[in-house]
Amino acid sequence: MNNILKKITLSVATSTLLFSADLAVDTVGINLGKAYTDHSVEHNMGSVLIPHHPYKNYTAIELFTTLEAINEDEDIKPYISYTYSKNDDMKHQYLLAGVNKYYKHETLDLYAGVVGGYGYLHWDYNPVNNTTDNKHSVNSFILGLQAGFEYPVVEKLALNFNTKYLLHDYDTHLEPTTTESSTVTHDKTLFIGLGLSYKFGEETPKDSDNDGVIDKIDQCPNSVANEIVDAKGCAKDSDNDGVKDTQDKCPNSSSGATVNSDGCPIDSDKDGIYDHLDKCPNTPEGMEVDSKGCSCKDYDDDNDGVDNCTDKCPNSQANEIVDQKGCEVIFTIRINFPSDSAVIDDTYMSKIKELSNFLIIYPTYKALIEAHTDSKGSEEYNQKLSEKRAKALYEKLLELEIDESRIAYKGLGETNPIATNDTEDGMALNRRIEVTFLKK
Questions:
Q1: What average pLDDT does range 320-339 have in this prediction?
Q2: How many CB atoms lie within 10 A of CB 299?
Q3: CA distance 111 to 269
Q4: Do residues 179 and 35 share a domain?
Q5: What is the model's pLDDT at position 46?
Q6: Last residue in a domain, options 153, 173, 199
Q7: For 97-101, 300-304, 376-380, which range has the lowest pLDDT when averaged over its residues?
Q8: Could you tell me if 194 and 339 lie in one domain?
Q9: How crowded is residue 132: how many other Cβ atoms within 10 Å of its Cβ?
Q10: Is residue 305 part of a domain?
Q11: Is residue 194 domain-shared with residue 340, that is, in the same domain?
Q12: What's the longest Cα–Cα distance across the chain?
């Protein structure tokens, strides 16, 4: 195991030093922290071999430097460090070399890497018998991994956090006593440190996509050539319609507009009013519209059920019966009776059928039948006679299959004359039926 570790360690350290020969210093720094080490020592107590794992923690200081990048992307940098750690009775020193791979994350520069090197461990006592009569030192080959981050504080100065996990390979015999000896086989060290780093030289901020915004703050690092970008390095969309300015043929679209792939507002019904402003989005093509995108077909100003385009009588009164052109339908029917009679003469049947057809054509209306008498006879008698006359027309309409729910009737007796009751002609006019129409 120790031979393999030595070969890997030598390869990492040698490669780093060769790469670094002609490279300029990029940063230097110092970290203060703790090193936690598990020492693996085997005690040979005569004929008995006793494994021993003394766990130690050290106060540590690390001096380090990184060199300029060795690759085109400028994110792989050689790393060299010297660490000195100490506790009450032991000192541990090691020199490491390796490479780090850097990753940009918003304001942080994250890194991870591999290191290798050489270490020196010194006891201020004899670890074989725990006496101070003889001090001991051993050397080791080291291989490990590290990770951390740099956080800019001010120009060129950054806060640095670093952690390492190291394997030390000793396989070294300590000086024996008369019957006792020990072998240090290997250590495992966890180092955690925090410090500062200083960056040399005038750094030219990198702008990988050549959009004028440096990579460090570029939130869209792959902008295409000649793209117009904002301060964050993203394609500019001045009117916020979702189409980049370089592709937007209508760069001043109003807020909320639905646009096509060219960035121009859509007018689905081609009435000249854009969809986001169009209150009547399905206007037939070619029809004249107002500023809301609505035509006369979409309005009925007098609420008569006939649109403005069709309405030839645009000022109909409320509840007025109108025809398909919006004009008032005037249907008059007057049935006169002989004196003291409630029988409808057959000569009125054609007029009654017209009334029936009218109700069929306009199903939202119902008929109110009102019957009258002259003043001959008592008021009580005339009231009953008028009710009989109204019911006579009601029954005629039922025979013509008009639903009873659409017909109402009442007698008004002699209370509403339309002519004088002092003459025969006047009384003949007062003996009548009148029909009016109401909305259901």
A1: 74
A2: 15
A3: 58
A4: yes
A5: 46
A6: 199
A7: 300-304
A8: no
A9: 10
A10: no
A11: no
A12: 163
Residue 45, both tokens: 């107590």
Domain count, the chain: 2
Per-residue pLDDT tens over the stretch 363-399: 878 888 899 999 998 999 999 999 999 999 999 999 9
C-alpha 431/C-alpha 148 separation (Å) is 112
For the ranges 37-41, 90-94, 182-186, the one whose mean pLDDT is highest = 90-94
* 235: Cα separation from own chain's centroid: 19
Final residue in a domain of this structure, among 170, 199, 228: 199
**Residue range of the domain that includes 144:** 2-199
Question: Does residue 216 lie within any of the structural domains?
Answer: no
Indicate the residue type of 7.
K
- Secondary structure in 3-state letters for the chain: CHHHHHHHHHHHHHHHHHHHCCCCEEEEEEEEEEEEEEEEEEEEECCEEEEECCEEEEEEEEEEEEECCCCCCCCEEEEEEEEEEECCCEEEEEEEEEEEEEEEECCEEEEEEEEEEEEEEEECCECCCCECCCCEEEEEEEEEEEEEEEEEEECCEEEEEEEEEEEEEEEEECCCCCCEEEEEEEEEEEEEEEEEEEECCCCCCCCCCCCCCCCCCCCCCCCCCCCCECCCCCECCCCCCCCCCCCCCCCCCCCCCCECCCCCECCCCCCCCCCCCCCCCCCCCCCCCCCCCCCHHHCCCCCCCCCCCCCCCCCCCCCCCECCCCCECCCCCEEECCCCCCCCCHHHHHHHHHHHHHHHHCCCEEEEEEECCCCCCCHHHHHHHHHHHHHHHHHHHHHCCCCHHHEEEEECCCCCCCCCCCCHHHHHHHCEEEEEEEEC
Nearest to 344 by CA among 392, 397, 403: 392
In-domain check, residue 294 = no
* CATH number of residue 86's parent domain: 2.40.160.20
Is 378 within a domain? yes
Which CATH number does the domain housing residue 374 bear?
3.30.1330.60
